[in-house]
Amino acid sequence: MSEQARYWVEGFLNGTEPDPSVNKDGDVDFENQEYRIWTQAVDLFHETGYWTDEERKCEKCGSALLQSEPIEVCRNCLSKN
Ligand SMILES: [Zn+2]
Known about the structure:
This protein has 3 helices and no strands. By secondary structure, it is mainly α. 43% of the residues lie in helices and 0% in strands. The protein starts with a helix and ends with a helix. It has helices spanning 3-15, 33-48, 75-80. The radius of gyration is 15 Å and the shape is flat. It has one domain. Bound molecules: zinc ion. Zinc ion binds next to α3.
């Protein structure tokens, strides 16, 4: 990928990032567990380019999947295979 294309893709992904959840005052709570999960999900989103608003669980272990997880199996279970 050319340098220009790479910047475009990064900009595109950054521009389409979903917003983190906010508290009742409309502020992002950086200490919140939800925010930590959101940052993990966004990191993964930059890899996968995938995002869903559906709440899903891992087909193998039943743990909650990140919203940017492209398949129905969590990273833990994937790395065990
Ligand atoms: Zn799992």
